[in-house]
Amino acid sequence: MTEKNYNPKQKEKKAMKKQEVVRDLKPKKQEKPAEKKVKEEKSEKKEPIIKKEKRKKEEAVVKSYNLPISTKYSVALCKFVKGKTPRIAIEDMEKVIAKKKAVPMKGEIPHRKGKRIMSGRYPKRATEYFIRLVKSLQANAVANSIENPVIIEAISNRASRPFGRYNRFGAIQRKRTHVELKAMEKIKWKKEK
Q: Residues with Cβ < 8 Å from 143, sequence gap 6 or more?
């Protein structure tokens, strides 16, 4: 009985030889002289490539849909954040989570201690979501090369609210909110105002 040779390098050599034989058998295309002239003309007429400059974006935007937070609290947080830089807004919201600073709110809400505030609350969960959004907005501003970003627009709208399960039926309607934040460079924002 003959032994089979399982050396992979030998197999590669055989395969390469077969490929070379097949290449030699294929007829080579011969170009007509007219085609050569056309190709030369095309190569001579090459125009310089003009690279388009990237247009600098003037504002950074963050949109978030169907957040599981109260629309009432998110409206109050939008007013709380608007007109501030992202860094200051994050610091203030961290104070809200620590219950050092209240978010001013309208309606029949108990009074709070602090300057220029009548009634307010400490919406912890909504504030946590807003901190994430403002951090994302800050990163977008850096990506768009905005040097001194200021939150110029903060909008929150009610989203479609699904029914949650309580016992057997969908008795509870859940909270859902859409939020949109925009930031612009401070100098341009003042000029527009």
A: 60
Q: Cβ contacts of residue 155 below 8 Å, gap of 6+?
A: 78, 179, 180, 181
The torsion angles phi and psi of 184, rounded to 5 degrees, stand at -140, 160
Q: How many CA atoms lie within 13 A of 159 on its CB side?
A: 21
Instruction: State which fold the 59-162+176-192 domain adopts.
Output: Ribosomal Protein L22; Chain A (3.90.470)
What is the phi/psi pair of residue 46, to 5°?
A: -65, 125
CB 153 within 8 A of CB 182: yes
As a whole number of angstroms, the distance between CA 138 and CA 144 comes to 10
Q: What is the mean pLDDT of residues 12-26?
A: 63
The structural domains of the chain, with segments of one domain joined by +, span 59-162+176-192
pLDDT digits (tens, 9 = 90+) for 83-118: 999 999 999 999 999 999 999 998 888 888 777 788
Residues comprising the chain, all counted: 193
One-letter amino acid of 133? L
The H-assigned helical ranges of the chain are 8-25, 33-44, 71-81, 86-97, 124-143, 186-192
